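Risk register update: the risk of archive-format incompatibility is retired. Evidence:
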Amino acid sequence: MADAFRITVDELKRRMYAGEDFTVIDVRNPQAWAASETMLPKAIRVTPDKLEEVLPRIPKNKPAVAYCT
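Archived output:
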């Protein structure tokens, strides 16, 4: 497994606009998710306690970015 690292929102935006393909995993808690006006298209929505159940749906051939509050 590759080493995990942090990426800023601006860096992610820049790389996405440049055409890089990411799997985005939204692990915000239910309250934060419901209150947010920001929903990334195609993001996989999962609470941290259910992440293991979702792992088979996460492509292994591209970077994955998880975000939370």
